Amino acid sequence: MATTTGSERARSTLAFLRRHITTGAWPVGSRIPIEPELAEQIGVGRSTVREAVRSLANIGMLETLPGRGTFVRSATPTSTLLNEFLNDFTLEEILSYRRALEIEAAQQASMHRTEEDVAALERAAAEERGCTRCPVLGLGDDNSAFDSRFHRLLFDAAKNRLLAALYSGINDQLRTPAHRGRLANVATGAEMERDHARVLDAIRRRDFIDAVHSMADHVDHDVVIVTAEHEVVPPLTRTAEQQERIDTAREEADGRLARS
Length: 260
Ligand SMILES: [Zn+2]
Known about the structure:
Blueprint: H1 6-22, H2 35-42, H3 46-58, E1 62-65, E2 69-72, H4 78-86, H5 91-112, H6 115-127, H7 149-158, H8 161-174, H9 177-180, E3 183-184, H10 189-204, H11 208-222, E4 224-226, E5 232-233, H12 240-259
Antiparallel strand pairs: 1-2, 3-4, 4-5
The protein binds zinc ion.
């Protein structure tokens, strides 16, 4: 007769819970089944379930509220772990990491997007059209609760769960009050509209080179660091010659958009 050890049961219980969370079978915000129910479903003891729930609570995926049950808080463990890890880095380093993620997502989105992704991005771009600033990181207008759906949807279109998880973690980090006061969004509403239209156009045409360039251009001015001297520090500083090449590429992209 096959027997399973305690550690195997613990592992499979953890895997069971994790799978239900990461696949969205238990969506973020939902209450998971009660302990005896889970114990029966998985075929383990209640203490094994309790232990697994506790370890997922430790990494921020679940939260147990006394008398109310256990709730899904995050579909990935990345957020909590990543935030602790990122605390050791400077804001400049974090912002440059965010830049890399946005650019990679734009490129992957241009290759993996479906028609539904394009439609969803078009809707988001249209919704955000009235904003005076790109609402990325909640830095748009005065509505700090509003985050850019356009930016998030790019990560859905990229079809890469790890990129999406890392992005969500870094967003949480950059949204902290400590960082918020030091960050500003200097892209005007008109600039955001033009930038997003360009990124969207590249993704629609599955042009992965344009997708990269247009997103790189956008992230260079959508979120910047404000220093004590009220100077703004873009993620990348360029020479006049580099700036000229960027301006030329921008004009070409605008020409293409005007013709389409
Ligand atoms: Zn944006």
